[in-house]
Specification:
143 residues, 39% helix, two-stranded antiparallel ribbon, single chain, 4-stranded antiparallel β-sheet, 3 helices, 31% strand, alpha+beta
Length: 143
């Protein structure tokens, strides 16, 4: 009887430990994907910052959609065959629009919005970042 109770306690402890480990791995994976999404959005915004005002206002110059597949390094199996790693696919949209600030310099401003979507564990995730881009930069508006 004591052995059965001991095995029962050991089994409950093992299941709880396994659940805790799986929860921890899931949390780390989600944090890694969130960090990668932030990096992709910031990279895209930095790309937009490099464009001139004329380039931003040229129809079709700025891509409206993009896709980033985040995979690890390629691996080989025991027979030497390459294994293509599977990873998270991030799908992004870039939207360029006019602001509605009701100021006299609205025509010299654009709102750039980058939206990124991906799926983790069957759940759709989304991150969005918006910023203003000015024709003359911010210098003439601040000083």
């Amino acid at each position: 009887m004591e052995a059965v109770i001991g095995m029962l306690i050991f089994g409950i402890t093992a299941v709880a430990l396994y659940g805790g480990l799986m929860s921890g791995f899931s949390t780390v994976r989600m944090a890694r994907e969130n960090q990668r999404a932030t990096q992709i959005i910031l990279d895209t915004m930095e790309m937009v910052r490099l464009y001139s005002w004329d380039q931003l206002n040229t129809t079709g110059f700025l891509p409206t959609t993009f896709t980033v597949v985040d995979t690890g390094p390629a691996k080989t199996d025991t027979k030497g065959n390459k294994i293509t790693p599977s990873g998270v696919t991030y799908t992004g949209k870039i939207n360029l629009s006019n602001p509605s600030l009701s100021t006299n310099y609205d025509s010299r401003l654009k709102v750039v919005t980058v939206e990124l979507n991906w799926t983790t564990g069957g759940v759709q995730r989304t991150r969005t970042l918006s910023t203003l881009v000015a024709n003359d930069g911010l210098y003439s508006y601040i000083y």
